[in-house]
Amino acid sequence: MAMPTMYAVASGERLKVLMERTGTGESITSRELAQAAGVAHGTIGALMSEAQRAVPEDKAKAIAAALGVDLLVLFIPLERAGRALIPAQVTAV
Questions:
Q1: Which DSSP helix (H) or strand (E) runs through 7?
Q2: What region, left, alpha or beta, does residue 68 occupy, with left being phi > 0 and alpha being psi -120 to 50 degrees?
Q3: Of 2, 9, 41, 57, which sits most exposed with the smallest number of CB within 10 A?
Q4: Do 44 and 33 touch, CB atoms closer than 8 A?
Q5: What is the CA radius of gyration of the chain?
């Protein structure tokens, strides 16, 4: 069975900014975002603090959709070889 493509959050700060002004112009709390995206509240908090850097593709798409932004505005796809390597541009942000 193939491993799902993982997506790294570009930066916790970018996630916070996008939550302050979503695609609709409204702000959203981490709890509201978690509920809208169907993910655990702890996942959103961990992405914001960068304690967790990557999520599976389905969660990344759900979070981006709940924020009203394109997936690649917030996330960077990682390689499919099963290794969760964070690209240099992610760690430099």
A1: strand 6-9
A2: left
A3: 2
A4: yes
A5: 12
Structure tokens of 23? 């695609």
pLDDT digits (tens, 9 = 90+) for 35-74: 999 999 999 999 999 999 999 999 999 999 999 999 999 9
Rounded Cα–Cα distance for residues 83 and 93 (Å)? 21
38 conformational bin, left if phi > 0, alpha if psi -120 to 50, beta if neither: left
| Cα distance between the two ends of the chain | 33
Q: pTM to 2 decimals?
A: 0.82
Cα 21 to Cα 4: distance, rounded to the nearest angstrom:
29
Q: Give the separation between CA 84 and CA 78, rounded to whole angstroms.
A: 6
